[in-house]
Protein backbone atom coordinates (compact mmCIF):
# COMPACT_ATOMS: atom_id res chain seq x y z
CA UNK A 1 0.00 0.00 0.00
CA UNK A 2 2.90 2.36 0.72
CA UNK A 3 4.18 1.94 -2.85
CA UNK A 4 0.77 3.00 -4.19
CA UNK A 5 0.81 6.18 -2.10
CA UNK A 6 4.35 7.09 -3.07
CA UNK A 7 3.76 6.64 -6.80
CA UNK A 8 0.45 8.48 -6.56
CA UNK A 9 2.11 11.42 -4.82
CA UNK A 10 4.91 11.49 -7.40
CA UNK A 11 2.30 11.58 -10.15
CA UNK A 12 0.76 14.83 -8.86
CA UNK A 13 3.69 17.05 -9.92
CA UNK A 14 3.81 15.03 -13.13
CA UNK A 15 0.16 15.96 -13.75
CA UNK A 16 0.86 19.66 -13.23
CA UNK A 17 3.94 19.53 -15.46
CA UNK A 18 1.95 17.62 -18.08
CA UNK A 19 -0.64 20.38 -18.16
CA UNK A 20 1.52 23.48 -17.83
CA UNK A 21 4.84 22.42 -19.37
CA UNK A 22 3.78 20.22 -22.27
CA UNK A 23 5.86 22.09 -24.86
CA UNK A 24 9.61 22.35 -24.78
CA UNK A 25 11.09 25.53 -26.27
CA UNK A 26 13.00 23.60 -28.94
CA UNK A 27 10.11 21.30 -29.95
CA UNK A 28 12.40 18.30 -29.47
CA UNK A 29 9.80 16.26 -27.63
CA UNK A 30 7.22 16.27 -30.41
CA UNK A 31 6.13 13.58 -32.86
CA UNK A 32 3.60 14.39 -35.53
CA UNK A 33 2.67 17.62 -33.80
CA UNK A 34 1.95 15.81 -30.53
CA UNK A 35 3.80 16.80 -27.35
CA UNK A 36 5.64 13.93 -25.69
CA UNK A 37 6.58 15.68 -22.45
CA UNK A 38 3.41 14.59 -20.57
CA UNK A 39 4.39 11.01 -21.36
CA UNK A 40 7.98 11.70 -20.32
CA UNK A 41 6.90 13.12 -16.95
CA UNK A 42 4.69 10.15 -16.16
CA UNK A 43 7.33 7.75 -17.48
CA UNK A 44 9.80 9.21 -14.98
CA UNK A 45 7.36 8.47 -12.15
CA UNK A 46 6.91 4.85 -13.22
CA UNK A 47 10.62 4.44 -13.87
CA UNK A 48 11.32 5.50 -10.29
CA UNK A 49 8.82 2.90 -9.12
CA UNK A 50 10.30 0.22 -11.36
CA UNK A 51 13.80 0.93 -10.12
CA UNK A 52 12.70 1.03 -6.47
CA UNK A 53 10.44 -2.02 -6.44
CA UNK A 54 10.43 -3.98 -9.68
CA UNK A 55 13.82 -4.51 -11.23
CA UNK A 56 17.56 -4.04 -10.92
CA UNK A 57 17.97 -3.95 -14.68
CA UNK A 58 18.56 -0.53 -16.23
CA UNK A 59 17.35 -1.99 -19.54
CA UNK A 60 14.00 -2.96 -17.97
CA UNK A 61 13.65 0.50 -16.40
CA UNK A 62 14.38 2.04 -19.81
CA UNK A 63 11.73 -0.27 -21.29
CA UNK A 64 9.17 0.96 -18.74
CA UNK A 65 10.13 4.53 -19.59
CA UNK A 66 9.91 4.11 -23.37
CA UNK A 67 6.67 2.12 -23.33
CA UNK A 68 5.06 4.68 -21.02
CA UNK A 69 5.98 7.48 -23.43
CA UNK A 70 4.66 5.35 -26.30
CA UNK A 71 1.47 4.72 -24.29
CA UNK A 72 0.94 8.47 -23.97
CA UNK A 73 1.45 9.03 -27.69
CA UNK A 74 -0.88 6.21 -28.73
CA UNK A 75 -3.49 7.25 -26.14
CA UNK A 76 -3.53 10.75 -27.64
CA UNK A 77 -3.83 9.35 -31.15
CA UNK A 78 -6.65 7.00 -30.12
CA UNK A 79 -8.46 9.80 -28.30
CA UNK A 80 -8.28 12.15 -31.26
CA UNK A 81 -9.36 9.46 -33.73
CA UNK A 82 -12.35 8.42 -31.65
CA UNK A 83 -13.25 12.04 -30.95
CA UNK A 84 -13.29 12.84 -34.68
CA UNK A 85 -15.56 9.87 -35.25
CA UNK A 86 -17.93 10.67 -32.35
CA UNK A 87 -18.11 14.46 -32.32
CA UNK A 88 -21.27 14.56 -34.43
CA UNK A 89 -22.78 11.29 -33.20
CA UNK A 90 -22.97 11.74 -29.44
CA UNK A 91 -23.44 14.36 -26.76
CA UNK A 92 -20.26 13.37 -24.90
CA UNK A 93 -17.46 12.83 -27.42
CA UNK A 94 -14.79 14.04 -24.98
CA UNK A 95 -15.78 11.58 -22.26
CA UNK A 96 -16.04 8.61 -24.61
CA UNK A 97 -12.88 9.37 -26.55
CA UNK A 98 -11.07 10.05 -23.26
CA UNK A 99 -12.19 6.65 -22.01
CA UNK A 100 -10.76 4.96 -25.10
CA UNK A 101 -7.52 6.91 -24.78
CA UNK A 102 -7.33 6.04 -21.08
CA UNK A 103 -7.78 2.36 -21.87
CA UNK A 104 -5.10 2.45 -24.58
CA UNK A 105 -2.64 4.35 -22.39
CA UNK A 106 -3.15 2.13 -19.37
CA UNK A 107 -2.93 -1.07 -21.43
CA UNK A 108 0.43 -0.23 -22.94
CA UNK A 109 1.70 1.10 -19.63
CA UNK A 110 0.88 -2.09 -17.72
CA UNK A 111 2.54 -4.11 -20.44
CA UNK A 112 5.74 -2.09 -19.92
CA UNK A 113 5.60 -2.50 -16.15
CA UNK A 114 5.00 -6.24 -16.59
CA UNK A 115 8.21 -6.52 -18.56
CA UNK A 116 10.08 -5.12 -15.56
CA UNK A 117 8.44 -7.31 -12.92
CA UNK A 118 7.16 -10.81 -13.57
CA UNK A 119 4.85 -10.73 -10.52
CA UNK A 120 2.93 -7.82 -12.08
CA UNK A 121 1.93 -10.13 -14.95
CA UNK A 122 -1.42 -11.16 -13.54
CA UNK A 123 -5.02 -10.58 -14.46
CA UNK A 124 -5.93 -8.66 -11.29
CA UNK A 125 -3.22 -6.00 -11.67
CA UNK A 126 -3.86 -5.60 -15.37
CA UNK A 127 -7.66 -5.40 -15.20
CA UNK A 128 -7.63 -3.07 -12.20
CA UNK A 129 -5.14 -0.67 -13.79
CA UNK A 130 -6.67 -0.71 -17.27
CA UNK A 131 -10.18 -0.18 -15.84
CA UNK A 132 -8.94 2.73 -13.73
CA UNK A 133 -7.26 4.22 -16.81
CA UNK A 134 -10.46 3.96 -18.83
CA UNK A 135 -12.67 5.38 -16.12
CA UNK A 136 -10.23 8.21 -15.39
CA UNK A 137 -10.13 9.00 -19.12
CA UNK A 138 -13.72 10.21 -18.84
CA UNK A 139 -12.32 13.29 -17.08
CA UNK A 140 -11.33 14.58 -20.52
CA UNK A 141 -14.94 15.82 -20.53
CA UNK A 142 -13.85 18.48 -17.99
CA UNK A 143 -11.32 20.00 -20.38
CA UNK A 144 -11.65 23.76 -20.36
CA UNK A 145 -9.72 26.40 -22.27
CA UNK A 146 -7.28 23.74 -23.44
CA UNK A 147 -6.46 22.71 -19.89
CA UNK A 148 -6.24 18.97 -19.31
CA UNK A 149 -5.46 19.36 -15.62
CA UNK A 150 -8.59 17.55 -14.35
CA UNK A 151 -7.75 14.57 -16.57
CA UNK A 152 -4.08 14.54 -15.61
CA UNK A 153 -4.81 14.96 -11.88
CA UNK A 154 -7.13 11.96 -11.89
CA UNK A 155 -5.54 9.66 -14.48
CA UNK A 156 -1.87 9.86 -13.56
CA UNK A 157 -2.12 9.47 -9.74
CA UNK A 158 -4.81 6.78 -9.92
CA UNK A 159 -3.00 4.70 -12.55
CA UNK A 160 0.30 5.18 -10.68
CA UNK A 161 -1.36 4.09 -7.42
CA UNK A 162 -2.78 0.98 -9.06
CA UNK A 163 0.62 0.09 -10.48
CA UNK A 164 2.28 0.78 -7.14
CA UNK A 165 -0.28 -1.40 -5.42
CA UNK A 166 0.57 -4.23 -7.81
CA UNK A 167 4.33 -3.98 -7.53
CA UNK A 168 5.73 -6.58 -5.18
CA UNK A 169 8.33 -5.04 -2.87
CA UNK A 170 11.49 -7.02 -2.46
CA UNK A 171 10.69 -9.17 -5.52
CA UNK A 172 12.89 -7.46 -8.09
CA UNK A 173 13.44 -9.35 -11.31
List its traits.
globular; 173 residues; two-stranded antiparallel ribbon; mainly alpha
Q: Please state the oligomeric state of the protein chains shown.
A: single chain
Number of helices: 6
- How far apart are the termini? 20 Å
What is the share of helical residues?
over 70%
**Which residues form runs of ≥5 with pLDDT under 50?**
none
> How many structural domains are formed by the residues?
1
Largest sheet: 2 strands, antiparallel
List how many beta strands DSSP finds.
Answer: 2
Order of SSEs, N→C? HEEHHHHH
Instruction: Name the beta content range.
Output: under 5%
Helix/strand class: mainly alpha
Mean of residue pLDDT? 93
Rounded to an integer in angstroms, the radius of gyration calculated over CA atoms is: 15 Å
Overall geometry: globular
What is the strand arrangement across the widest sheet?
1-2
What is the structure about, briefly put?
By secondary structure, the chain is mainly α. Helices cover 71% and strands 2% of the residues.
Characterize the structure shown:
- The protein has six helices and two strands; from the N terminus they run αββααααα.
- With 173 residues, the chain is mainly alpha-helical.
- Strands 1-2 form a two-stranded antiparallel sheet.
- Helix 1 packs antiparallel against helix 6 (149-166), helix 4 (93-116) runs antiparallel to helix 5 (123-137) and helix 5 (123-137) packs antiparallel against helix 6 (149-166).
- The chain starts with a helix and ends in a 7-residue tail after the last helix.
- The mean pLDDT is 93.
